UniProtKB/TrEMBL annotation:
A molecular function (GO) term: metallopeptidase activity
Domain Metalloprotease TldD/E N-terminal, residue spans: 8-77
GO terms classed as biological process: proteolysis
GO cellular component term, pick one: cytosol
Name of the molecule in the record: TldD/PmbA family protein
Family (UniProt): Belongs to the peptidase U62 family.
SUPFAM superfamilies: Putative modulator of DNA gyrase, PmbA/TldD (SSF111283)
Pfam families according to UniProt: PmbA_TldD_1st, PmbA_TldD_2nd, PmbA_TldD_3rd
Top-level taxon in the UniProt lineage: Bacteria
Residue ranges occupied by any Metalloprotease TldD/E C-terminal domain in the UniProt entry: 218-433
Domain Metalloprotease TldD/E central: 107-210
């Protein structure tokens, strides 16, 4: 402000991480990284009263470097193009205190411990009959700290830890080999799956995929396994992003207050889940984070907005600003999930005569403007209500507007990722195969 800005904010992100990888019983890599990044945003009013903004980022936080960065960001803001929507968040929306969401367990496994986890995961996988090669196993740990300050008086900081174990293996021989994987990640070490469990699951999945068949093109019900079903929820989130709606590039831009899912279904974004994978006590602008229903009883209720996109839409921020050190805030989700249904996975499948159970998706064939959806997929064929043989080289296609309205969730919702959904059934999908 002393350098000539009319408003400003700064965000610092410090991170420490360590990872270890094993392959075929041998240690491959041990990596550790530590760093601190700082982002400074300055906003300056032009002669016509329009606001302009600029951002600089740096890793050198010494006095001379900071002085130079401040001078540079203010100078840049003065010549930046007008942005009538930029600016700090309304002070009435700022978090008054930083809630403790128990995101940091303050544990730091050493390299030897991580190596033992990686070794144990791969060994458990290689011990499963049918597994013939390994793409490697890994274990990791990390801690991040975020601090945000604004010229309107907000100051807040929080830290979060992460722990992970992963394994990827091959089953079969020659041209008949199949790959699969498993992993576990958690904020707290006590909630991490054991390395042996991760390795065994990866191996069992790979063996189960051996001798896949190709299926003819047809229209069938499709089941999305929980490890891929979150992608469907993610596509809806992308379509209700305030930035996309403001640009007019979303196929749901005119659907506020209308039915977009079947009655009874709700999609929730909750940044305050204790130990949540994407939890945070305040957003990238210092706004208090609160639970938000994007869709309630099938009806679209809210856009995902930061302050800028909200102003473009003539609304108020929904407290969903995401921020890095290299640019201004933008809208993003936190712990996003589709609420569980009332039927089991088996009951969801029981009446399907012919269908496709998806465990892996390939490619990004989604048109955010029209809602057209086309993805490569692999998984298992369903016959007479039972999951039977593996299938591969399938393309599954439809339109997201129709898919959302013909979606049925099972009751097996678990929170493993930042975006989660239970097993999903979608009627009338087109599959293109042999």
């Amino acid at each position: 402000m002393a350098a000539g800005a009319d408003a400003a904010d700064a965000i610092a992100a410090a991170g420490t991480s360590m990872s270890v990888s094993y392959r075929m019983g041998k240690l491959e890599d041990v990596e550790r990284s530590e760093g601190t990044d700082l982002g400074i945003r300055a906003m300056v009013k032009g002669a016509d009263g329009a606001m302009r903004q600029a951002v600089v980022s740096l890793t050198d936080t010494s006095g001379p470097a900071l002085d130079e960065a401040v001078a540079r960001v203010v100078a840049m803001a003065k010549i930046a193009p007008d942005d009538p929507y930029c600016g700090l968040a309304d002070t009435a929306r700022l978090a008054k205190e930083v809630a403790d969401l128990d995101l940091d367990d303050h544990q730091e496994p050493d390299a030897d411990t991580l190596a033992k986890w990686a070794e144990a995961a791969e060994k458990a996988a290689l011990d499963v009959d049918g597994v013939t090669n390994s793409m490697g196993a890994g274990a990791g740990w990390g801690r991040s700290r975020v601090a945000l300050a604004t010229s309107d008086g907000f100051e807040g900081t929080y830290s979060a830890s992460s722990h992970s174990v992963s394994c990827s293996v091959l089953a079969g021989e020659g041209t008949g080999m199949e790959r699969d994987y498993d992993y576990s990640s958690a904020r707290h070490l006590s909630e991490l799956d054991t390395a042996e469990e991760v390795g065994r699951k990866a191996a069992e999945k790979a063996v189960k995929r051996l001798n896949p068949r190709k299926m003819p093109s047809q229209s069938v019900p499709v089941i999305y396994d929980p490890r891929v079903s979150g992608g469907i929820v993610g596509h809806l989130a992308g379509a209700v992003s305030g930035a996309a709606v403001a640009r007019g590039t979303s196929f749901l831009k005119d659907r506020m207050g209308q039915q977009v899912l079947a009655s009874g279904l709700s999609i929730i974004d909750d940044p305050r889940i204790i130990r949540g994978r994407a939890s945070k006590p305040f957003d990238g602008e210092g706004v208090l984070t609160e639970k938000l229903a994007l869709v309630e009883d099938g009806v679209l209720q809210s856009w995902i907005m930061d302050t800028s996109s909200a102003r473009q839409l003539g609304l108020e921020t929904s407290g969903r600003a995401s921020r890095g050190t290299g640019g201004p805030p933008g809208p993003s989700t936190t712990n996003l999930y589709l609420e569980a249904g009332s039927v089991s996975r088996d009951d969801l499948i029981a009446d399907i005569k012919q269908g496709f159970y998806i465990t892996e998706l390939i490619g990004m064939g989604v048109n955010g403007v029209t809602g057209d959806y086309s993805r490569g997929a692999a998984g298992y064929w369903i016959e007479d209500g039972e999951i039977t043989f593996p299938v591969t080289e399938i393309t599954v296609a439809g339109n997201l507007k129709d898919m959302f309205l013909n979606l049925t969730p099972a009751d097996d919702l678990t929170f493993r990722y930042g975006t989660n959904a239970p097993t999903l059934r979608i009627e009338g999908m087109t599959i293109a195969g042999a």
